[in-house]
Amino acid sequence: MTLLKIDYVEFASGDLARSKAFFAKAFDWTFQDYGPTYAAMSNAGIEGGIQSDPAEASAAPLVILKAHDLEAAVTAVTAAGGEIVKPIFAFPGGRRFHFREPGGNELAVWSEK
Question: Which of 94, 101, 58 shows the shortest CA–CA distance to 77?
Answer without folding.
Answer: 101
